[in-house]
Every structure is written in C-alpha cells, then in structure tokens.
Amino acid sequence: MLLISQHLCGQEAYTKKIEALKEQKQKITVQEKDALKVEIEDINKRLKNNEITKVEAQQLKEAAAKKRALNIENRIAIVDNEIALLERNNGRTLALVENDSLDDDKWWWGIDFNGKPKVFFKRNGWERRIRYDRRTYSEFVIAVGLNNAIIEGEPLDDSPYSIGGSRFFEFGWEWRTRVFKHTNFMRFHYGFSFQFNGLVPADNQIFVIEGDQTVLQDFEFDLRKSKLRVDNLVFPVHLEFGPSRVRETEHSIRYSIRDQFRFGIGGYGGFNLGTRQKLKFSRDGERVKQKEKRSFNTTDLIYGLSAYIGVDGILLYARYDLNPLFRNAIVEQRNIALGLRFDL
Question: What distance, in Å, lies between the first and last C-alpha atoms of the chain?
Fold first, then answer.
C-alpha cells in the first residue's frame, strides 16, 4: 500500500508540473507583450521630447517587436523541451549539481525579463548585479599650465611675476553624473582637487611680511630662483555640456563621451593648506637654498570660477580666484591660471 501511495503522489506531482509548464507557455507571451508595451511607451516618450526622430522611433519599435517575438519563440521552445524531457522520463530527470571539478570556480547566472533585463552573477557565494543604466562615472583629473595674478589697477602684461616661470599643477578625482534620464547632453561634474599655484617674482625680488601686509622687496644677493607656492584643497563643481554616443544592448545602456566635444562652466571652493617660499642664490661664492614655510598672509578660504572646453579627455582649462591672494592687502591680487586639463 505504501508503494502504491508513493507512486500516486509522484504521478500527481508530475502531472501538476506538466500543467504548470503549459500555463507558463501562455504567461510567456503575455509577459513579453507587456514588456514590449513598456518599451514602445518609452520610445514614444523620447520621440515626444524630441530626443529621437520619427524614423529612429520607427526603427526602434521594429527592433523591439522583433526582439520580443524571438524571446517568445525561444522561451516557449525551452518550456517545450522541458515538457518533452519530463514526459520522456516520466518526471524523473537528473539535476546538475555543483559537486564536481568546478568546486573552486562556480558561476550562476540568470535573466530577469521585466521591461529592462538584468543579469546576476554568482561565484563562490559572491553576487554582483550589472547595472542596466549607469548615470555616474568617475575619473582622475590632472591639469598643468601658467599661473599669475590679476592686480587691482594694473594690466596683466605689466605683472611683477614671470609670465612663463609662474606655473600651476592640479590633480584630483571627479565624478560625472547625467542630469536627465534619457539624454546625456548635460552632466554634473564634481569632486575634489589639490592645487599648487606658483608665483615667480621678476627683477630679483622676494616676498616679505611687513605687519599685516605681504609685499615684494629687492633681495640683497643675486637670485637664481625665487618662488612662492600656495597649496589649496578645493571642491570643484561644473555643469558640463556636450554630445555623446549611446550603446544599448539587451542588458545595459551606456552613454560614451569618448572622442566627443564638451565644455563645462562652474566654480570651486575650499581652503588653503599651506604657503611656502623657496629661494636659491649665491652668497660669498657659496650656493644657498632657503625654504620658508609661513602663512605670508595668504587667504584661508579659496573660491572662484572655472571653465574648460575640448574633445574627449584633453581640455583647455581656466580658473580665476574671486578671493584675494593676500589678506588685508592695500592693493588686492587675485590668482588666475590657464592651461591644459586631462581627464583620465
């Protein structure tokens, strides 16, 4: 009696599984058609927002319909094969287990068709999801170029600082986030940067502190080098514009700005990390190097405007400090820089 009962239970489970698979075939068609409706609505919305043309919209609709039809065909074939396998073996089939030579390198994957497919990977208990749409990217930023100061009431070509000798170096890490959902034309570019601004006085002069004033004075020995370096930590924010290429697959959509024109406008704010003056000169036939690390009355809070323009990761870069270089200065000076920026 026990054997007969077990056989009947097994037959009942087998029959229910076959029926469930047949119902699944019907649900597949409904699910794929619903997913197609979502895609068509999205395409119509992009057309209404003038993100694509009517021709492009028609092509996208035809491609989506073809994809969903193939999905229905393939998925129903999979279910039909599973039904045939069960019927051929009376519901008793072998299951693939992970107890084999792949114990140290196991992978599991699956696809969720729900309007926007997603793929999951699993290896040795570790699971990762491939994001369908990445809106934020990050990159290392380096900038180099010429540095100088705009002095109140004086033209830049009459600057007391060497035009070619005064330079800056900047590096940092920035993130780029797409503003809108279906277009990458506008992005937020933000992060942090370390600035090293150098000023080289002309005419054998050095910086000297006189009370609350920092002024240039002639040096008593012949200078081989005189340089003031101001180090800042700032947090730039830019609004970036430019075209991009779209790469769309069944599992992901990516917007690429590689080899594309772009420009950004914005500003930055931060604080001064330190100021130092480096001198090299000869005294009594002896070469002397002298480093002096002091505040030199430089401003603690840094803020200004910046912009860049170029193609891909090579950009013309400019920035201008709105804060005065020195505190309490009778004649205000503001740092200005122009150079090349590389987004790596």
Answer: 75
Q: Produce one character per residue of 106-125: b if its CB has 16 or more CB atoms within 10 Å, e if not.
A: eeeeeeebeebbeeeeeeee
The angle subtended at Cα 253 by Cα 42 and Cα 256, nearest 5°, is: 120
Give buried/exposed letters for 240-258 (b at 16+ CB in 10 A, else e): bebebeeeeeeebebbebe
Where do the DSSP E strands lie in 69-153? Answer: 108-112, 118-123, 126-129, 136-151
306 burial level (CB within 10 Å; 0-12, 13-18, 19+): buried
Alpha helices in the chain (DSSP H): 2-48, 54-88
Which pLDDT tens digit goes with each residue over 192-243?
Answer: 999 999 999 988 888 898 888 888 888 888 888 889 999 999 999 999 998 8
* pTM over the 0.85 mark: no
Which residue carries 């992060």 as its tokens?
191
3-class secondary-structure state, position 21: helix
User: What integer is the mean pLDDT of 118-140?
Assistant: 63
C-alpha span between 223 and 37 (Å, rounded): 76
Rounded to the nearest 10 degrees, the angle between the axes of helix 2-48 and helix 54-88 is 170
CA distance readout (Å), 190 to 138, 201, 209, 239, 278: 9, 33, 36, 9, 33
